[in-house]
Amino acid sequence: MANAKILEQKATVVSEIKNKFENAKSVVLFDYRGLSVGEVTELRKKLRENGADYKVYKNTLTKRALDELNIDMNEYLAGPSAVSFGTDELSIVKVLSDFAKDHEALQLKAGIVEGKIASCDDLKRYAAIPSRDTLLTQLAAGLMGTVRDLSICLDLYAKEKENN
Questions:
Q1: Which of 46, 54, 104, 159 lies deepest, with the highest CB count within 10 Å?
Q2: Is pLDDT at 144 greater than 80 in this prediction?
Q3: Phi, psi torsion values for 163, nearest 5 degrees
Q4: How far apart are CA 30 and CA 96, in angstroms?
Q5: The whole model's pTM is what?
Q6: Is 94 helix (H, G, I), strand (E, B) or coil?
């Protein structure tokens, strides 16, 4: 039978995993096998720049934490898995997806985005969405074009009224 101290340590890890899943806005499971130490360091740096990090937990402990949260991701927990926790919905999906393009060893498995389980294909679609800053810039550019056109129309209308 397992030692009480070991059981306590495992319970602490399960609690930590559960806490991270509850507090993260997005979570991505991925296979990291085949990455060199330098590549892992580069990935950690990119994730930290976007307010995230990743950690490798035993699948059995991750499954136990997910069971306590009533999340069924057991099919994605086959083989070694790293888990990345993000502070916003899409930044870690984009970072990991871009990193996977350059490093074939990294394979996305699944994730949780906006509280819903996302398959690998879903994660790829999320990664294609422009960043928040890009979307705001596009919105501002569209609004500026409309305002410019309105000002031109009003100016032409005012000149027409002056001539009459």
A1: 54
A2: yes
A3: -75, -20
A4: 9
A5: 0.75
A6: helix
Q: What is 4-129's CATH number?
A: 3.30.70.1730
Number of residues assigned to the chain: 164
Determine contact, residues 26/92, Cβ cutoff 8 Å: yes
Q: Which amino acid is at 8?
A: E
**Distance between CA 26 and CA 114 in Å, rounded?**
7
Task: Indicate if the pLDDT at residue 17 is higher than 80.
Answer: yes
User: What pLDDT digit, counting tens, does each position of 87-125 carry?
Assistant: 888 888 888 998 988 888 888 999 998 888 888 888 888
Q: Write the single-letter amino acid at 117.
A: I
Are the beta carbons of 90 and 28 closer than 8 angstroms? Answer: no
In this predicted structure, the answer to whether residue 1 has a pLDDT above a threshold of 70 is: no
| Of residues 103, 114, 109, 115, the one with CA closest to residue 84 | 109
Distance CA 69, CA 55 (A): 19
